[in-house]
Amino acid sequence: MSLLEISDYRLAFDGFDGTAAVLDGIDLAVEAGDTLGIVGETGCGKSVLARSLLQLNPVPPARVVSGRILFEGQDLLRLPEAGMRRLRGRRIAMIFQDPASYLNPLLAIGTQLVDVIRGQDSAAGGVVRPRRAARALAAELLAAVGLAEPERLLDSHPHQLSGGMRQRVLIAMALAGEPRLLVADEPTTALDVTVQAQVLALISRLVADRGLTLILISHDLGVIAQSCARVAVMYAGTVVEEAPTAELLARPLHPYAQGLLAAVPDLDRPEHRPSGIPGSIPNLLRPPGGCRFHPRCPRATAECAATKPLLRELAPAHRVACHHAAP
Amino acid sequence: MASRSLRLAGFLFRRSFASMLGLTLVTLIVALALLGPWIVPYPDDVAGATNLAGKLQPPSAAHWFGTDEVGNDILTRVIIGARLSLLVGLGITLAAAAIGVPLGILAGTAGGRLREAIMRVTDLFLSVPGLVLAIALVAALGPGIANAMLALVLVWWPGYVRLAESKALSIREEPFIEAARVAGAGRLRILWRHVLPNSISPLIVKMSMDIGQAILAVASLGFLGLGAKPPTPEWGAMISIARGYLPDWWWYAICPGAFIYASVLGFNLLGDGLRDILDPRSNRG
Amino acid sequence: MITYLLRRAGLAALMLFGLICLTFIIANVAPSDPAALAAGPDAGRSQIEQARREYGLDRPLHEQFLRYVTDLTRGDFGRSVANGRPVGQDLARYFPATLELCLLAMALGVLAGVPLGMLSAVFKDRWIDHATRILAVSGIALPPFWFGLLLQLGFATALGWLPTSGRLSVFTEPAAPITGLLLVDSLLRGNGALFTEALSYIILPAIVLSLPCLASILRVNRSEMVEALRADYITAARANGVLRRRLIAVHALKNAMLPTLAIIGLRWGWMMSSTVLVETVFDWPGIGLYAVSSAISGDFKPVMGVTLIVGLNFMIANLVVDLLYGTLDPRLRDA
């Protein structure tokens, strides 16, 4: 049994203008110890998918249409809020895009960490350790994410920290409950390029040291290539291709994945001009029928407009959702 | 696009019970003010007929809210009072906006010393809570409905300066103003085309709220004996007389007070509802 | 932080000076002749002129203003025409009653408004949210003088549970004031009977005075809580398993309290100003009643005195709010 198994997951957002089919039949499995990257453009639903794993999408407007998300054999979509609370941070933890807005501006770092640690204790059903003991653990966690002078840091506030430090604090918080699965939603997007590499290296080290399973969301293939063994490409609420990272980079099979790769500038070959994908992402209130990519696809045929392609395994561990893809 | 946002606004407004209640109350009050003289049960009592034989009667089928100390039907006088209250509330708000908005836009777009001067004077007026300042002004000018109105306008305009100034300031920073200026549009043209339309939504919201508050303020001054003088059918002044007949003739005070409450409530709810759809980011209480 | 506070204090001092100017201007644009007023209703021309000289009203305006300001710095607010007493003395006598009433009303407003705002934000769009919304809009729309009369009719006349008006029974002789606040003084002296009596007199006017304040605290706190509960940092804290009650009562509330504090400061001034209505209804012997009775007889020195006191209170309240802001918001502390 996989650690995480998502099957036929459909999520809609209800609004005044109608219902947006934000996630349209997601099928994904993640084994324990796996590192999976999810890549796609802004608005493709990758962050919504990440938040679904912790049931953080606000209901309403979000509405589950169908599907299952099995984590350790439990269906998260049917788990009551109380059960979900026991999972958050302890089994599945999450780190976010913009560390400045994801830390409470008015509370000291120490207070925020101590509250997380004590929250975990209480969710575990055991004794809740006193604040002083929690504070000691908080300092250890800060040291573990490579922050100097953790004791002093506990008394400082978020505005006194740099972006990279804030993201490390958020990572420390995510580690507090010793989770099995770490979901990182664009963890480096808001950071300076030099800091990005450090934070990615930290995540990779923690994943290796603590035996974590990682799901890393990014719009940047380079980031995913650095830290993930496998990658899934999302387009307009569907997974269009899933493969080992090296394989996808070398031989993308889905036209969208090919376009995505062609759009990346290549520093080794400056003569190679990056090319964009013509057209724009579809309006999910009225998504195109059949394959959602067909209006922009150079290889589209009548079949693409009529039937939605399912993920097919075209090579070992390489699955593609395209009528025309061939190995 | 415009029709979509209009439809969305209509949808949100109709969905809210509170907004619809506000609209209903305001419509009722306006209708009473317009139709008052033709629909009151005792038209003779409007001019102040006396009927001492029938004074201070309790509520009955003939007089739903009883009669007052000279035998006039209380409901009749309260309905007639709607016209005065509404006019006064509307007048104060419009006059305050007419003074405050141009000053605010001027301060917001001109900047420099002029802005400093306008805003300091505004802050000064805002530093004394409204009712006390109004009483101080009435004390100096002498009591009466006209002076009460004047005092309340003097108390009310600074709020509009603040609003218009902050809107003008924030719009001044917008890229499209920069673009318009680069394209050679004059200051007046920018004001007219960009600043004013962008200030309209919060202005409408504030005015709706303020009409209610102005009605309440005029009634308050009337109650204190500093506003309208009896026998003017002003709600606050009526309650002030009714107070002398408490507790034995308790019903006298009920009807005028309920009308003040209903109209202030109506304008507040309407303003609230309008804010939810026109200006959702601001939610100051 | 220190410079921030000093700046705010400096601004407040400037405003106070402006307020003094404002009251002076109001007093001088008055169409009524202050000298005629001072000389009394039956005074002849010569008596009026004598009064004019006596009060310095024949001097040029800037001299009069200078004298007004120097008098004020010595606590001299001028003399009431109606009773001939110095206004400063009367203000000192009436102010504690108003302060006591406002403090209790503000306590009621905050203690009820903040938790109710929090509850309705947490249970947004549920029945408790709708119920508090009705309370909030009513609180702002109910005419305080009418609501006061209704409470008198209900609790004093019909039920007979509470006294109608006044601060104490006319037969009760309170001991010399310590703080001037009867509730506090009676506790300090351990006089339980006096405390209960004072409480029975103050409770109705305090409720009437607190209602608009409660309503706006509730509204602001609710909408700020709704906003805070949607914030990214709450999502993160939730994702990491912070306990729900801690999340609401500390993480979100602390952020919602900043704007709520601002409204509390604002409301303190409005509350002082509404005492003119509430004190009139309940015959509460405070500065509000003093201002109204003076205004009716055209005796405006006391009215200006009350205006200054209320404005001063408003400024002090805003300074206290600024101070609290500084302690609550670490970003300001470092600024």
TrEMBL record, chain A:
Cell location: Cell inner membrane
Gene3D superfamilies membership: P-loop containing nucleotide triphosphate hydrolases
InterPro entries according to UniProt: AAA+_ATPase, ABC_Ni/Peptide_Import, ABC_transporter-like_ATP-bd, ABC_transporter-like_CS, Oligopep_ABC_C, P-loop_NTPase
Keyword rRNA-binding: no
Coiled-coil features, chain-numbered ranges: none
Recorded family membership: Belongs to the ABC transporter superfamily.
Bilayer topology term: Peripheral membrane protein
Species assigned in the record: Plastoroseomonas hellenica
Protein name as it appears in the record: ABC transporter ATP-binding protein
Sorted UniProt keywords: ATP-binding, Cell membrane, Membrane, Nucleotide-binding, Transport
Any Pfam family the entry gives: ABC_tran
Domain annotation ABC transporter: ranges: 4-261
GO molecular function: ATP binding
TrEMBL record, chain B:
Domain of life: Bacteria
Xref: InterPro entries: BP-dependent_transpt_permease, MetI-like, MetI-like_sf, OppC_N
Keywords in alphabetical order: Cell membrane, Membrane, Peptide transport, Protein transport, Transmembrane, Transmembrane helix, Transport
Gene3D superfamilies in the cross-refs: MetI-like
SUPFAM superfamilies named in the record: MetI-like
ABC transmembrane type-1 domain residues: 82-271
Record field: transmembrane: 21-40, 86-109, 121-139, 211-229, 249-271
Membrane topology category: Multi-pass membrane protein
Places the protein is found: Cell membrane
Chief site of localization: membrane
CDD domains according to UniProt: TM_PBP2
Family classification: Belongs to the binding-protein-dependent transport system permease family.
Protein's UniProt name: ABC transporter permease
Automatic annotation (TrEMBL), chain C:
Swiss-Prot/TrEMBL keywords: Cell membrane, Membrane, Transmembrane, Transmembrane helix, Transport
Compartment annotation: Cell membrane
KW Transit peptide (keyword) present: no
Membrane topology, from the record: Multi-pass membrane protein
Pfam families: BPD_transp_1, BPD_transp_1_N
Signal peptide from the UniProt entry: none
Main location: membrane
SUPFAM superfamilies: MetI-like (SSF161098)
Regions crossing the membrane: 103-123, 135-162, 198-220, 252-270, 303-325
Superkingdom of the source species: Bacteria
ABC transmembrane type-1 domain segment(s): 95-325
Family per similarity comment: Belongs to the binding-protein-dependent transport system permease family.
PANTHER family named in the record: DIPEPTIDE TRANSPORT SYSTEM PERMEASE PROTEIN DPPB-RELATED (PTHR43163)
Protein name per UniProt: ABC transporter permease
Protein source organism: Plastoroseomonas hellenica
Phylogenetic lineage: Bacteria, Pseudomonadati, Pseudomonadota, Alphaproteobacteria, Acetobacterales
